[in-house]
Design brief:
heterodimer, A: Fumarate Reductase Cytochrome B subunit, about 0% strand, B: about 260 residues, Sulfite Oxidase, Chain A, domain 2, 2 domains, five-stranded mixed sheet, five-stranded antiparallel sheet, 7 helices
Chain lengths: ~210, ~260
């Protein structure tokens, strides 16, 4: 918290500008809770019939056993889906996606990735995403849509059998669902690490400025 | 966990405690889930909620699961058929799965066995296996999906349950067909009437063209390709057509009751 207070003074002149509007902050934190509940209960469900040669430690899973984990998973899914739909609707309706995430050019991504890796990427203006951010944020939205759709196709392989078939059948859809989870976890590692490295970005997601 | 357990034991009849705990919480890990719910409840006490309507995560999750039963019943399409597969797609060997080992599975003598029919039906006569074998049978090759996540394709042959319900004059406006099984703990499971009347829901007598082996539920299994595996009872000994929700072996422990696929 002390780093937040310190950055408060340094960025004082620019505080008039709202970086993250209230609706973005609201859906962001609801999504954070929903995703964590879904991932932790999902790991417990995975443990009942692992796809790979490992299980998740019960110290990081939610639900205690398969039945408990399923209750959490099928409760938190509503939070994730409803909140996700609100986010997508407002993202398109307000033009935020277009303004913030487009265009994404390969040249821009390469030069910004290089700048980031050599420590030369600036975070002075938080209202503008660099090309790596644009790619990651657009990418994680696509992954979010895929994980919900693959999840639905595992949940309802008869009622939604055309969706399940689109994913290559029930068994393949389980792998898609798992890979999307892994992608979200990888994203979270980078996302959280960078938010902590640039505390004013975290502050903007809490108080808006 | 260890410390909490040692705190709980003094002054308490250990045997009774273990017995109760075993009933409520089949495994240790489950206790953590319950404990998590309790602390959620404690949190709301701090915020000033009344004790009598104290909120716990477990109660909330149960309510959402009931809501999910309703959602699934609403999106259940009685005409949507589960995908069928060619013989070549059958999973070999087809897995055995139950709360008991195969050696402890019911070993039923088909000559003594009778299928009892109770509740809201005109004809409450019990059926012998010989009588049931005479009913028209159909074969279907469908995917069995376990609540655990794995799936396997099998070939099941038997009488559509809806034909049998018509034959015995069942009140198909009733809410459930409640099945009971011949295992030691009395496995049972309710099946909503819409699913019971689904064309692929079957009283199964054969697996892979052979008389249903002991592992898969001899002498009779209810095959429901629109439900998860645990809603496909094996070693079935009776059916009650009823408007009452009578619970089920796994349903009572927390698996979602509708569990449609």
């Amino acid at each position: 918290m002390s780093s937040l207070a310190a950055s408060d003074e340094r960025t004082a002149p620019t505080t008039a500008k709202v970086i993250q509007p209230a609706w973005v902050r609201t859906v962001h934190w609801i999504n954070a809770v929903a995703i964590i509940l879904m991932i932790m209960s999902g790991w417990q469900i995975y443990n009942a019939s692992p796809l790979f040669n490992f299980k998740f430690s019960s110290s990081i899973t939610l639900g205690g056993w398969l039945g408990g984990a399923l209750l959490w998973h099928f409760a938190a899914m509503w939070l994730l889906m409803v909140n996700g739909l609100v986010y997508l609707t407002l993202g398109f309706a307000t033009g935020r996606f277009r303004k913030k995430l487009l265009p994404i050019t390969p040249a821009g991504v390469i030069s910004d990735a290089r700048a980031a890796l050599t420590g030369k990427l600036s975070h002075d203006d938080l209202t503008k995403y660099n090309y790596v951010q644009k790619l990651l944020y657009a990418g994680i939205i696509v992954v979010g849509i895929l994980i919900v759709l693959s999840g639905l196709s595992i949940w309802k392989p008869v009622q939604l059998q055309y969706l399940t078939a689109l994913f290559g059948g029930y068994d393949v859809a389980r792998y898609v669902h798992f890979v999307c989870m892994a992608a979200i976890c990888a994203f979270l590692v980078v996302h959280v690490a960078l938010a902590l490295l640039v505390p004013k970005s975290l502050r903007a997601m809490i108080i808006g400025r | 966990m260890g410390r909490i357990r040692s705190l709980l034991i003094p002054g308490v009849d250990k045997q009774l405690l273990v017995k109760d705990a075993a009933k409520l919480m089949p495994d240790l890990a489950r206790r953590r889930f319950i404990a998590g719910g309790a602390s959620f409840g404690a949190l709301t006490l701090l915020t000033g909620c009344d004790v009598t309507d104290s909120f716990s995560a477990e109660e909330m999750l149960k309510k959402i699961s009931k809501f999910n039963d309703g959602v699934q019943a609403a999106i259940f399409n009685p005409y949507a058929l589960a995908p069928t597969f060619p013989e070549s797609a059958i999973t070999k060997p087809f897995p055995f799965n139950a709360y008991y080992e195969l050696d402890d599975a019911p070993d039923i003598n088909g000559k003594d066995w009778k299928f009892e029919v109770r509740g809201l039906v005109d004809n409450k006569k019990s059926w012998t296996l010989e009588e049931l074998y005479k009913l028209p049978q159909v074969k279907q090759i469908t995917r069995h999906i376990c609540v655990e996540g794995w799936s396997a394709i099998g070939s099941w042959t038997g009488t559509p349950l809806r034909d049998f319900l018509k034959l015995v004059g069942a009140d198909t406006r009733a809410k459930y067909c409640w099945f009971q099984c011949g295992d030691s703990e009395g496995y049972n499971s309710p099946l909503d009437m819409a699913t019971a009347l689904h064309p692929q829901t079957q009283m199964t007598f054969k697996f892979g063209d052979e008389i249903l082996p002991r592992a898969y539920g001899y002498p009779m299994k209810i095959r429901v390709p629109t439900k998860l595996g645990f809603k496909n009872p094996k070693y079935v000994i009776s059916m009650e057509v009823t408007n009452d929700y009578k619970g089920g072996y796994w349903e009572d422990q927390g698996y979602n009751s509708f569990s449609g696929s």
